[in-house]
Design goal:
Elements lengths: L4 E3 L18 E8 L4 E6 L5 E6 L3 E6 L4 E6 L3 E7 L5 E9 L2 E9 L4 E7 L3 E6 L5 E6 L3 E8 L2 E9 L5 E6 L5 E6 L3 E6 L4 E6 L4 E6 L5 E6 L4 E5 L6 E3 L8 E6 L5 E5 L3 E5 L5 E6 L4 E6 L5 E6 L3 E7 L3 H17 L2 H17 L3 H10 L1 H4 L1 H18 L4 H13 L3 H11 L3 H17 L3 H12 L5 H16 L3 H14 L6 H10 L15 H8 L16 H7 L7 H13 L17 H5 L6 H21 L4 E5 L5 H8 L3 E6 L2 H11 L6 E4 L12 E6 L9 H14 E12 L14 H10 L3 H10 L3 E8 L4 H6 L9 H15 L7 E7 L14
Parallel strand pairs: 30-31, 30-33, 31-32, 33-34
Antiparallel strand pairs: 1-2, 2-29, 3-4, 4-5, 5-6, 7-8, 8-9, 9-10, 11-12, 12-13, 13-14, 15-16, 16-17, 17-18, 19-20, 20-21, 21-22, 23-24, 24-25, 25-26, 27-28, 28-29, 34-36, 35-36
Helix pairs in contact: 1-2, 2-3, 2-5, 3-5, 5-6, 6-7, 7-8, 8-9, 10-11, 10-13, 10-24, 11-12, 15-17, 15-24
Length: 843
């Protein structure tokens, strides 16, 4: 355990500037690094004692200043810990993965063992009543257990089987008369003190930690979909959900007696929400936040994370503050609009600011825009953010929000100014500099725009990228592929040598003997599942490490990933099926073109080739999924890349381009063959009969050459020319991507024209639906910043590198499915029996 400890007394006030409001919504009281991922934390009602369990088989107890009271080694990894209200009892749950077993320990205040009990599966959660006499346990065997102390020994009172995918969360009220249990992918159940069911809610969205307030007034359960389920016992709306706060699952959960919740997330943040489920503030860490705990009044928050750090922070938005804020918010809404609502809103905003909740103030003002009016809401938000950035120039997030409002108001110079300020924060740098470039361009400052876009392309990799790379490295290391693991670790090390335990892992790989066997993968292991499950997090058990009886539990968790092992296998098989990596460098352009040759048409710069390769793999995947097809049309065929590929697959292929020179070039490359058939024509008036094709494609940003109004005409023509049941695949630039760089062949002016033409991802899907096409799938492509593509040396597209490029891309999408890539691919279908429409023949 590290000696580092940064301490502030729990009663310390947050630092205030001349403005009179705090610099932050929380103040760190103390932190300590335990040198191993912290999986679970628990605290007494006022956090005078804090217990922490970690993966190095230890449990430790700390005072209210962060001083260690004791540390004890156990038989296996410590996954669960709980402490009684007086600190006299500490319960700990451990996990052995092969063979499957777990042990529940009860220790006294000095860390001495009082009792232990063995189970046949890992213990994930434990909870104690205030007096320490009742103990509830959740296990990977799908059971919740209740134990009662008598004469210094605990005896089993009840056991309930809740599911087959593990009980990840259990919690008992202070008086021991209410128990909340969460069974993964099955249910959330409230029991009485005898383990009789009081209420049960079906919950197919995977559940994690569960927590009851000590008075059992509130319960909270972390969910796989990035939000939490809230239980208000005895209330008419007993079960609600918080807003979605993350793309990743919520694992840690704690709740106060007034419904303030502390949520720990696999994205590395702890989130604080109020009893209405709204996000108040968040705290960033370098590791997955597995567990959280709260003092009874929510004034102190305990956070344990995968980077080995245990933190206690003072929450300025505690229960008393939230009571005040919700009362003020209610006055705004009851005023019903007009001047009175505006006056109430100004009072509420002043209170938000008093507790350091500037972000929250801006979000609530946006919510109140229908009451206050758009202009009044924006003006008040501008005032708050101007004052905050003036008082605290390093509040980069406030600069970003201020710039966003200026951008909406088309005050381009002020928007650019504040985006540049916001860009000094590593986590905001990429998005801020890209938006600054857009704003500078709108303001007519082209040199500044070019500089901002260039600096954005040189950005540091995002936090999402760091987490994905680290998980990939750990997954490759765990399945016996040290060379692949080393590559990812080395890239992380160059960007941030202090990131987690990267340096130690590189040293460990240096000292490790070569892995036995081909690729070092055990013959019976499911390599795909093993790698994908590793993306759940570096501290998640690996398939190859666990007893067969536990593997179904890990398989259940694979639902947290947006890319399944089956989908990954299918997409990577595209590369082998079409020999995309088997290229004869002596082959001359124009002769015997196959898929692999067209992957590299015109020998673009490496970053362009990476985009083309990713797009092609996903096109071929969708052609295989939604086909077979007999006749296809490619809009904007240019040099004939896709018509040639589709013709080679036995499809009667047509290519259309508005440029005669491009069509002539494609015809020369085709030679004497009759398929593909290239035509000169305009996509806004396709020279083909109704229902002529069962596949139409429009690729590599061709759609961005049309203003939005003209794109609607193009889509109407697509609908007209598709047969019922036919498929339309469109790939275009995603202007919401923070690292969007288009193709290098375009000038800066052309890029800006495409940026102006391009609708958002949601708007694209809406335009497609508006023309009568049913959207089947919206798939992001190019999720990696180009800096990362270069660092991993994936841009050269040599042997095995297309597969690696796709693999890293799939890893990003698996973990962060809502992220924006450089391109977005929309797959849609014309409904069967849809009436034909020819806009040219309508009166």
């Amino acid at each position: 355990m590290s000696n580092r400890s940064e301490s502030k007394r729990p009663g310390d006030r947050a630092p205030h500037g001349a403005s009179g409001w705090p610099d932050s919504s929380y103040t760190e009281v103390w932190s300590r690094n335990l040198d191993s991922p912290v999986i679970c934390v628990s605290a007494t009602p006022n956090a005078s004692l804090v217990a922490a369990a970690s993966t190095d088989r230890t449990v430790a107890l700390f005072s209210d200043t962060g001083e260690p009271r004791w540390r004890r080694s156990l038989d296996n990894e410590a996954w669960a810990v709980a402490i009684s209200a007086d600190g006299a009892r500490i319960a700990v749950g451990t996990a052995a993965k092969h063979p499957a077993s777990g042990t529940v320990f009860v220790l006294d205040r000095a860390g001495q063992e009082l009792w232990r009990h063995a189970l046949e599966a890992p213990v994930w959660s434990v909870s104690l009543s205030d007096d320490g006499e009742r103990l509830v346990v959740g296990s990977w065997d799908g059971c919740a257990y209740l134990f009662q102390e008598a004469n210094g020994r605990f005896g089993e009172v009840a056991r309930v089987k809740l599911g087959d995918a593990g009980v990840y969360g259990v919690s008992i009220s202070g008086d021991g008369q209410r128990i909340l249990a969460a069974a993964y992918d099955r249910s959330v159940t409230l029991f009485d003190g005898d383990m009789s069911v009081v209420d049960s809610q079906g919950c197919p969205t995977g559940t994690y930690h569960a927590a009851l307030s000590r008075d059992a007034a509130w319960g909270v359960v972390g969910l796989r979909d990035g939000r939490a389920m809230m239980h208000r016992l005895g209330h008419p709306r007993a079960v609600t959900r918080t807003e979605v706060v993350s793309q990743r699952p919520i694992c840690g959960a704690a709740v106060s007696s007034k419904g303030t919740a502390a949520l720990g997330c696999f994205d590395g943040r702890a989130y604080i929400t109020n009893r209405e489920g709204r996000l108040l503030w968040s705290l960033y860490t370098d590791g997955e936040v597995w567990s959280t705990s709260l003092s009874s009044d929510a004034s102190l928050v305990v956070v344990g994370s995968g980077d080995g750090t245990l933190r206690v922070v003072k929450n300025h938005a505690n229960d008393a503050a939230v009571d005040e804020l919700l009362a003020l918010e209610g006055r705004v809404e009851r005023a019903g609009g007009g001047g009175e609502s505006l006056s109430c809103a100004a009072t509420a905003v002043a209170a938000f600011r008093k507790y350091g909740l500037v972000d929250y103030a801006v979000r609530r003002l946006k919510d109140w825009a229908p009451l206050l009016g758009d202009k009044a809401s924006a003006d008040l938000a501008l005032q708050v953010l101007r004052e905050d950035t003036a008082a605290y120039p390093t509040h980069r997030r406030s600069h970003f929000l201020l710039a966003s409002i200026y951008q909406e108001q088309q005050d381009w110079r002020r928007a650019a100014l504040h985006y540049i300020w916001a860009g000094q924060d590593d986590q905001l740098r990429l998005q801020s500099l890209t938006r600054a470039g857009e704003a500078f361009s709108k303001a007519g400052l082209e040199a500044a725009a070019k500089s901002s876009f260039r600096r954005a392309r040189e950005q540091q990799i995002t936090e999402e990228a760091r987490r994905t790379l680290y998980s990939l490295a750990r997954a490759h290391e765990d399945i016996g592929q040290p060379a692949e693991a080393r590559k990812y670790y080395e890239v992380l090390f160059t960007f941030n040598p202090g990131y987690r335990d990267v340096f130690a892992r590189l040293e460990r790989l240096d000292d490790a003997p070569p892995a036995p066997g081909p690729r070092g993968v055990p013959s019976k292991a499911d390599w795909y599942d093993g790698l994908l499950l590793g993306l759940l997090g570096p501290d998640v058990p690996r398939m190859v490490d666990v007893d067969p009886s536990l593997q179904p539990i890990l398989h259940a968790r694979s639902k947290e990933l947006a890319v399944t092992a089956k989908e990954r296998r299918r997409i990577l098989n595209i590369i082998t099926e079409h020999a995309l990596e088997n290229v004869d460098p002596s082959r001359r352009a124009g002769l015997e073109y196959d898929v692999a040759a067209y992957m590299r048409y015109d020998r673009s710069v490496p970053e362009d080739e990476a985009k083309k390769s990713l797009e092609l793999v996903h096109v071929l995947d969708n052609v295989g999924r939604y086909g077979p097809f007999k006749r296809s049309l490619d809009i904007g065929a240019a040099t004939g890349r896709y018509p040639t590929i589709l013709a080679g697959m036995g499809i009667e292929a047509f290519g259309l381009d508005v440029e005669p020179e491009a069509v002539e070039y494609a015809r020369r490359k085709r030679g004497n063959a009759r398929n593909p058939d290239y035509r000169v024509g305009d996509a806004r008036s396709l020279p083909f009969d109704n229902a002529h094709f069962d596949l139409i494609t429009c690729m590599m940003g061709t759609a961005a050459h049309f203003p939005a109004a003209e794109l609607e005409t193009v889509l109407a023509e697509v609908h007209r020319c598709l047969r019922p049941g036919g498929v339309f695949i469109m790939s275009t630039w995603d202007i919401e991507c923070p690292h969007l760089s288009f193709l290098s062949i375009y000038s800066h002016a052309q890029m800006e024209e495409m940026r102006r033409n391009s609708p958002t991802r949601r708007e694209i899907a809406d335009l497609v639906r508006k023309q009568g096409l049913a959207v089947e799938e919206v798939r992001p492509i190019g999720l990696m910043p180009e800096a990362l593509t270069y660092e991993l040396d994936l841009q050269r597209l040599g042997p095995n590198q297309i597969g690696q490029l796709v693999d890293v891309e799939l890893a990003f999408r698996a973990v962060f499915p809502e992220s924006h890539g450089q391109m977005v691919m929309v797959v849609s279908r014309k409904p069967l029996g849809d009436a034909e429409r020819d806009p040219r023949r309508q009166p």
